[in-house]
Amino acid sequence: MERRRLLALSAVAAAPLAAGCSSRDGEAGPPSSAGARQAVEAYVEALNSRDATALIAVGGVEDETWSRREAARILAERGGRRWRIREVEIGDHMGPDVGSARLVAGNARGEFVRDTFTVMREGGSWHLAVFTRQPAPPGKESSSTDGPTA
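Below the sequence we write its predicted structure tokens.
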């Protein structure tokens, strides 16, 4: 009888741990390789179609002047080249809502693009950290490696 009680208590104690390891999108657990891969595929599609709105959406940033400017820069460098995904590797080593994605894509002209992104799940949707020039919120100074000012 005592052994059954210990087994039952062990199962109850382990249930929250098992639930926290779920990999389905929208739940706690390691990044869903399917959801993160879909974000990478959406990125490649946005590049191929030169679609700034889609690129902003996959980047998970607000559609503002700065993001439009950066999307235009990204599309000028890599857009419209008919990229085809050769390889996507999703890593889940950063927690349940953050991971990494490594992309290798090529086209018929023999050109290749190789990128590594941070992938993040926000509100059940996966995004790629492709926008690097997001301004600091009003009233907040950006970080600096300069010496102290005094």
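Residues 2-19 form the longest helix (18 residues).
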